[in-house]
Write a structure and sequence with these properties.
Blueprint (H helix, E strand, L loop, with lengths): L4 H5 L2 E8 L3 E8 L4 E6 L3 E8 L1 E6 L2 E6 L3 E4 L4 E6 L3 E8 L1 H5 L3
Antiparallel strand pairs: 1-2, 2-9, 3-8, 4-7, 4-9, 5-6, 5-8
Amino acid sequence: MKQSYTWANGELNALILLKSPEKQIILTAMHEGTEIKSFQSNDSVTVQIIEGRLRFHVRKDIVTLNEGQLMTLDENIKYSLTTQEETVFLLTISNNTSKNAGN
């Protein structure tokens, strides 16, 4: 990923590892100083840091995740992300509605 044109010329690069109706897993690499402002998923989200450090801004709280750590957010929670260094993480988005649709 870090050898690609997208990485060299942008703030981040993402690669979809799995995409199904129930779940998406995305490997994401962000450059130092990158900020993703005000993001909200309708589904639950889990982030696991592979390399680097990522800061989550959730409501009035700031949570810093270091290499090897993970965090889960319930659906419909607004957050933003910032990096202080190059950071690589797995983003897992779990669609809870498809599981409940059959009930």
